[in-house]
Amino acid sequence: MPELERLQAGHAAAVLAFELVNRAYFAVSISDRGDEFFDQFADRYRELLAEQEAGRCACYVLVADDGSVVGRFNLYDLADGTAVLGYRVPEGAGQGRVRPGRPGRPGRSGR
C-alpha cells in the first residue's frame, strides 16, 4: 500500500521519473514546466528541499511499494497557520471520497 512520505533527497530520481511519465497529462491542466525545468531538475530539487528546511513549504510524495512516486502534495506560502495546496496525481489514479473530519481532526478519505 502506498505511503505518504515527506519529500527528501532520496526521492529525487523517483520524482523526476513521475514528472516525466506524466508530463503530457499534467500539461493538459496546467502550464508545462518546459524542457529547462527537466534539464535543471537536480538544482531545482535541491532548492525545493532547502525551502522546505527553511519552513517555507512542506512537500510530500505518495510512494508505492516498489519505491516509485504515485503522487505529489505540496503546501506552500505557509503563513499564520494557512497554506496553499498544490498536488499532482497521474491520469487514471481513480477517485476517492473525502468526508469532513470532526472538530480537531482532519477529514478522512477512503473508498
Largest sheet: 4 strands, antiparallel
Number of helices: 4
DSSP E strands, number: 6
* Overall spatial form: globular
In percent, how helical is the residue content? 25-40%
Structural class: alpha+beta
Order of helices and strands: EHHHHEEEEE
What is the first-to-last residue Cα distance?
14 Å
Question: How would you describe the overall organization of this protein?
Answer:
With 111 residues, the chain is an alpha+beta fold. It is 32% helix and 32% strand. It has a four-stranded antiparallel β-sheet, covered by helices on one side. Strands 5-6 form a two-stranded antiparallel ribbon. The two termini are 14 Å apart.
In short:
With 111 residues, this protein is of the alpha+beta class. The protein contains four helices and six strands.
Secondary-structure topology with pairs:
Blueprint: E1 3-6, H1 12-21, H2 23-29, H3 34-39, H4 41-53, E2 57-63, E3 69-79, E4 82-88, E5 97-99, E6 108-110
Antiparallel strand pairs: 1-2, 2-3, 3-4, 5-6
Q: Can you tag this structure with a few keywords?
A:
111 residues, single chain, alpha+beta
